[in-house]
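Sanity check

After download, print the first record. It should look like this:
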Amino acid sequence: MTTPPRILSIAGSDSSGGAGIQADIKTITMLGGFAMTAITAITAQNSLGVTAVEALSAEMVAAQIDACVSDIGVDAVKIGMLGSPAIAHVVADRLEGLGVPVVFDPVMVATSGAVLADAPTVVAFERLMALATLTTPNVAELAALGGEAAVAARGVAYLAKGGDGEGDTVADVLHVPGHEPVTWSASRIVTRHTHGTGCTLSSAIATFLGAGIALPDAVDRARQAVRVALLNAPGFGAGHGPMGHHAIC
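Expected C-alpha cells:
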C-alpha cells in the first residue's frame, strides 16, 4: 500500500458539487491522493449559475492553510477561486518558500458566465503566477491576463486551455520557459455537462505532480481524466451540468 500524495486545494465551495472544492476533493481522491482544503468563499450555485458569493476572511483562509501544513503536510497545492485581493496575497504569503508544486487556476469567470474575480483580485494574481509551477488559464482568462504574449513575457509556465474555443478540435498548449511548447489535440466532446472542467484539470495536475510525475506527463494524464469525466457525466441539472468524477481512475 503506497502513501497517497497530500494535496491541498485552496478554492471556493460549490454548493451543487460540480466544481470548486467539491470537484477537487473528488478528483484528488479518485486519482489516489489525500485531499485537504482551505475554503476561500462559499457560493450558492448550480448548473444554471451562481446566485450568491460570500468570501471568508483572509485570516480564516490562512488558518486553514497553516493547520494543514503544520500537521498533515503538503506534497502539492491547487489554487482556484480566491474571492478577494487580501486572500490572494495571504495565500501567496503562505506558499512562498513552501517548496512544493503549485498549480494555479486563475478563476475569473464561471462556466455559467458569473464573474468570480474583480480587478484588484486579478492584479494580485501576479504574485501567484510567479510562484506557481503551472498556471492554467482558459481562453477568456488568458485574454484577461493580457493574452499569450503578455503571459509569456512574465516568464511563467502556463497551460493555454482550448476547451472554451471554437471548432471540432480542442488544443491545449503547455508553455514552459526555455522549452518548446507541447500541444495536445483531441476531438471536442460535445456535451453541456462541462461544469467544473477547469477545477478538475488543475486538481488532477496537482495530484500527479504531488506524486512525483513530471509536468508534461502530469498534464497529459490530467487531460485524460477530464475527458473520462466528460464522457461519463451523469446528466444532472438543466444547464451546464456536472461531470462524472466517479468514473475517473
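If your output differs, re-run the checksum step. Summary of this record's structure: The chain has a mean pLDDT of 93.
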